[in-house]
Amino acid sequence: MKTLVNAALSAMLCCSLAQKATAQEAPPHAVFLKFSDLKWEKTPDGLQDIAILHVNPVSKASELIIRAPKNFHVPRHWHSANETLTILSGTFTVKHDGSDEKVALNSGSYSYMPAKMVHEAWAGDEGATFFVTVDGAWDLNFVN
Fold first, then answer.
1. Does this model's pTM top 0.85?
2. 89-127 as b/e, with b when 16 or more CB fall inside 10 Å?
3. Residue 35: domain span
């Protein structure tokens, strides 16, 4: 049952991002967004806030910001594209398969996960806000 729920959540998120990508045209000029003007939505699980900043209409490379609530656990998952995170505020602890090490990232810290690398993360006591880039369409594939 958990697999079906995770698959449904992943499909809803991918569909939402695909719709946004289809609706966006390549800007003929620079794009400037004030943090206070971002359009926040809930992730399909309803537990995190997400603001899609830009999706390239051709490559589907995406830039977004996610706010995770305090002590939130992001279960083991992977993405089809390479992913980078830059922590804007709070602490976000990341672990990937193949290593027992958990790395606590705080404001200004950076991480890179190659495509299809299974990983999980935990927001700290104050929650975490992080900037995400992927070099292809952003998807979320949960692992049991």
1. no
2. ebbbbbbbeeeeeeeebeeebebebeeeebbbbbbbeeb
3. 2-142
> In this structure, what token pair is assigned to residue 69?
């609530």
Average pLDDT of the residues of the chain: 85
Report the chain's terminal Cα–Cα distance, integer Å.
Answer: 11
Query: Into how many domains does the chain fold?
Result: 1
- Pairwise pLDDT comparison (43 vs 18), residue with the higher score: 43
Dist. CA 128–CA 139, nearest whole Å = 20
- DSSP structure class, residue 19: H
Identity (one letter) of the amino acid at 55? V
CATH of residue 86's domain is 2.60.120.10
Distance CA 17, CA 62 (A): 9
Q: What is the DSSP letter of 29?
A: S
